[in-house]
Write a structure and sequence with these properties.
This protein has helices spanning 7-12, 15-69, 74-143, 149-254, 357-375, 392-398, 409-416, 445-453, 471-479, 482-489, 507-519, 529-541, 548-551, 587-595, 598-607, 617-625, 643-650, 663-672, 676-684, 701-708, 711-719, 734-741, 744-752, 767-773, 777-799, 807-830; strands at 263-266, 271-279, 297-303, 306-310, 318-321, 328-331, 340-344, 349-353, 406-407, 434-436, 441-443, 461-463, 468-469. The chain has 831 residues and is of the alpha+beta class. It has four domains: 7-231, Up-down Bundle (Substrate Binding Domain Of Dnak, Chain:A, Domain 2), CATH 1.20.1270; 264-377, Roll (PH-domain like); 406-519, Arf GTPase activating protein (Annexin V, domain 1); 548-558 and 583-632 and 644-830, Ankyrin repeat-containing domain (Serine Threonine Protein Phosphatase 5, Tetratricopeptide repeat, Alpha Horseshoe), CATH 1.25.40. The strands form three sheets. Strands 1, 2, 3, 4, 5, 6, 7 and 8 form an eight-stranded antiparallel beta sheet that branches. A three-stranded antiparallel beta sheet has the order 11-10-12. A two-stranded antiparallel sheet has the order 9-13. Strand 3 (297-303) and strand 4 form a beta hairpin. Helix 20 runs parallel beside helix 22 (734-741). The longest helix has 106 residues, at 149-254. The protein is flat and about 155 Å long. The protein starts with 6 loop residues before the first helix and ends with a helix. ANK repeats lie at residues 730-762. InterPro entries: ACAP1/2/3-like, Ankyrin_rpt, ArfGAP_dom, BAR_dom, PH_domain.
Length: 831
């Protein structure tokens, strides 16, 4: 046992003993202060913990209330109930923890402070008192004269007695000090160990509790992932339904069919008609209630040969006429109110008011039909549905069906049919349901989430089952695929000893592999300079497109007799295949397409009579009617073309020795040769998608793709951030070149991607003026439609609120986009 103060030193009462006593007393004072502070902090912690327990209990009760409110959803109710029970159990564990803290810290240490430390303080007071008495006795004993025997004896006795008392009290004091130093260790460690064991039990119980809950949580996690996918699908379906309803409403507003929105017909439930009507009171005064609280507006319906109404949905229907066979219906023109009609039965009559004349006629007709139906034995008559798409201006456009965008299983089946696409491109998970559209690969749901984290500038993820797929995008996916892309991005994987991840691998490993594959491009094979040169020269020799038209526009032939060919004016080629018709537009389609803009054009003319805005729809139609198709023009004579143009169109490009055969040049010539694998390889090697070839009139890969004539090649470049408006040295962008070459599908694609049709080249020509000069009726029509659509948006936006357009404007915009998509699809089918 380690002794803090030596017992023998206390008998000597040496300075060392006094110094030791002072040190111990200072230490005991600090110990008391620290323990008091710890006990107060423990009390504060316990009070805060109990407040937390009360708040947590209220929170658990809230979860239980939510579970009771969700009785219709079994999954939510059972899950919330189980979670509430687990959280309540954890709350009980918290209660036990704070009770143990109160017993081990507060009670035990507080007892140690109050009993042991206070006891030693009292002993210290006695020790100080007897020490002082001893000092007095010593002083008095030293001052007694030698000759006074009686006083000497008395002082000696007092000193002896005081010393005995001092030794006794000093020994007790030292004993208590030594015992306190030993006990302080055990008390402090005992209380803290008890507190930490309480924490151990708390967390162990919590771990056991949530270990039992873990299978349920894992199962709910799987269900939650599926719910997210289902919610996204339901959201898309609802958005499509919302769009279709909005489109129908816009058409009804456009053709003054607003009455169809004011009532419903539900033949499956036996409801012939239902909707709101004002009802005249049946009292003696026969008045219309004018109070806002009860304006006698009721929800009427004709069902089961009865006329009933109700004020609120939960109210029981009130029967106005029990049997319509005994009734008649008539208009009430003598009433003080408009649009009134009356249903008369043998016992009573009921006058009602509709919101418009068309609604009144619809209700009268519905009552008459119900009366006639009630007399028939079978009571079955086909319900004549109102034709909401009877406009002649929309007939030819709608007859073509939808925009032919692929969705769901169609896109999934076509993409997965490509070899290698049946598994995920990165981890090999079978049956992938996602794709990266700019890379052209299929992905599982795990890898698709990682690709999303790479950013859309690296990978654009789209669902094969939930999203709509445009034909050009679908064809791009079918042209590439996992096999082609993995041969490029994993060319050196085995050589570098890198293992391809498996579906069961941790997400961190799969993410690291994907980043190394697509961001760092560690596995891409870098060809030698000679191999790169050979490939670039080989691709440049595949440039079979005549480029004379890109530099010099063909001379316009003498205007022939205006004649617009019909869709049936086709000829059979020597190969036995039916040739393409002269124009994408037949006369009916052209007339229908322009007539669709007539309403807005006339509206624009009325609104802008003072501002000088002109109506261009009719003028465009007349111009196109007198413009022959580009395919009907006679071929220009060979001598009419520039010799320089012929030389450039026939001879392959010549590369100087100083030419750097970089990945940019590979992408440049691969775009012209329409070689998507070589383009993807160039992109993997780091090619700039908008690289400018200074040796070839500042042309870009996208302009080269236009020269190549492939719409899918242009789509690939646009999906990878190709600039649709970047111009060459003559100020001509991709839209200019597509117009010059007469590539109608590419013109549609660039207009769809927002190309500026007002851009002017160095000769002061826009794409529209070039198309008019080249007499290409198809492209003129498309550019005119785009221009008119843009003008209509700007005009209607100027007269309305900014950013808001009328239903007709929205419908026109949708119809224009639909028209553009149809032409892109047609071009893909023909290619």
């Amino acid at each position: 046992m380690k002794v803090t103060v030596d017992f023998e030193d206390c008998l000597k009462d040496s300075p060392r003993f006094r110094a030791t006593i002072e040190e111990v007393e200072t230490d005991v004072g600090e110990l008391e202060s620290k323990l008091d502070k710890l006990v107060k902090l423990c009390i504060g912690m316990i009070d805060a913990g109990r407040a937390y327990i009360v708040a947590n209990k209220q929170f658990v009760n809230g979860i239980r209330d939510l579970a009771l409110q969700s009785t219709r959803d079994v999954v939510i109710e059972s899950s919330l109930t189980k979670f509430a029970e687990s959280l309540q159990e954890m709350n009980n564990y918290h209660t036990i923890l704070f009770d143990q803290a109160q017993r081990s810290i507060k009670s035990q240490l507080q007892t140690f402070v109050k009993e042991d430390l206070r006891k030693i303080k009292e002993t210290k007071k006695q020790f100080d008192k007897v020490s002082e008495e001893k000092e007095v006795a010593l002083v008095k004993n030293g001052q007694v004269p030698r000759n006074k025997t009686h006083e000497v004896e008395e002082a000696t006795n007092i000193l002896t007695t005081t010393r005995k008392c001092f030794r006794h009290i000093a020994l007790d004091y030292v004993l208590q000090i030594n015992v306190l130093q030993s006990k302080r260790r055990s008390e402090i460690l005992k209380s803290m160990l008890s507190f930490m064991q309480a924490h151990l039990s708390f967390f162990h119980q919590g771990y056991d509790l949530f270990s039992e809950l873990q299978p349920l949580m894992k199962q709910l996690g799987i269900q939650l992932d599926q719910l997210v996918v289902d919610a996204a699908k339901e959201k898309r379906d609802m958005e499509q339904k919302h769009s279709s309803i909005q489109q129908k409403a816009a058409l009804q507003d456009l053709f003054n069919e607003d009455t169809k929105l004011e009532y419903n017909v539900d033949t499956e439930n036996g409801i012939a008609m239902e909707g709101y009507l004002f009802k005249r009171a049946s009292n003696a005064f026969k008045t219309w209630n004018r109070k806002k609280a009860d304006n006698n507006r009721r929800w009427f319906s004709i069902q089961n040969s009865q006329l009933v109404y109700q004020k609120k949905f939960k109210d029981n229907p009130t029967v106005v006429v029990e049997d319509l066979r005994l009734c008649t219906v008539k208009q009430c023109e003598d009433s003080e109110r408009r649009f009134c009609f009356e249903v008369v039965s043998p016992t009573k009559s009921c006058m009602m008011q509709a919101d418009s004349e068309k609604l009144r006629q619809a209700w009268i007709k519905a009552v008459q039909d119900s009366i006639a139906t009630a007399f028939r034995e079978n009571g079955e008559e086909p319900v004549t549905k109102l034709d909401r798409r009877s406009s002649a201006s929309l007939g030819s456009l709608d007859s073509g069906g939808d925009t032919r965008s692929m969705k769901g299983e169609s896109a999934l089946q076509r993409v997965l049919a490509i070899p290698g696409n049946e598994t995920c491109a990165d981890c090999g998970q079978p049956e992938p349901r996602w794709a990266s559209i700019n890379l052209g690969i299929t992905l599982c749901i795990e890898c698709s989430g990682i690709h999303r984290s790479l950013g859309v500038h690296n990978s654009k993820v789209r669902s094969l089952t939930l999203d709509s797929w445009e034909p050009e995008l679908l064809k791009l996916m079918c042209e590439l695929g996992n096999g082609v892309i993995n041969q490029i991005y994993e060319a050196r994987r085995e050589e570098m000893g890198s293992r391809k991840p498996q579906p069961a691998d941790p997400r961190q490993e799969i993410e690291a592999y994907i980043r190394a594959k697509y961001i760092e491009r560690k596995f891409v094979l870098k060809p030698s300079a000679m191999e790169q040169r050979a490939k670039v020269i080989s691709l440049s020799k595949q440039d079979k497109q005549p480029r004379s038209c890109a530099e010099f526009l063909p001379p316009r032939p003498p205007p022939p007799t205006p004649k617009l060919r019909t869709a049936s004016s086709t000829s059979v080629a020597a190969t036995g295949h039916e040739a393409r018709r002269d124009s994408l537009f037949c006369p009916d389609e052209l007339d229908s397409l322009f007539s669709y803009f007539d309403t807005s054009s006339k509206l624009r003319s009325l609104r802008s009579a003072d501002s000088g805005i002109q109506n261009s729809a009719d003028g465009s139609r007349e111009m196109l009617a007198s413009t022959p198709s580009s395919n009907s023009l006679s071929e220009p004579e060979p001598e009419s073309e520039s010799p320089v143009a012929l030389q450039r169109g026939e001879s392959p490009p010549v590369f100087s020795e100083l030419t750097d055969f970089s990945s940019d040049l590979l992408l440049y010539w691969a775009s012209c040769a329409c070689s998507l694998p070589d383009m993807a390889e160039a992109m993997a090697q780091g090619a700039d998608i908008n690289w400018v070839n200074a040796e070839d009139s500042n042309r870009t890969p996208l302009i080269q793709a236009v020269q190549g004539g492939s719409l899918v090649t242009c789509e690939f470049l646009l999906q990878n951030a190709g600039n649709v408006d970047q111009q060459d040295i003559r100020g001509r962008g991709p839209l200019h070149h597509a117009t010059i070459l007469g590539h109608t599908g590419q013109v549609c694609l660039f207009l769809k991607r927002g190309a500026r049709q007002s851009a002017v080249d160095t000769d002061g020509r826009t794409p529209l003026s070039i198309a008019v000069e080249a007499a290409n009726a198809d492209i003129v029509t498309l550019l005119r439609l785009a221009k008119m659509n843009e003008e209509m948006r700007e005009t209607e936006g100027a007269f309305g609120q900014p950013g808001q357009y009328s239903p007709h404007s929205t419908q026109t915009e949708q119809q224009y986009k639909k028209c553009i998509q149809e032409f892109i699809t047609l071009q893909l089918d023909e290619s």
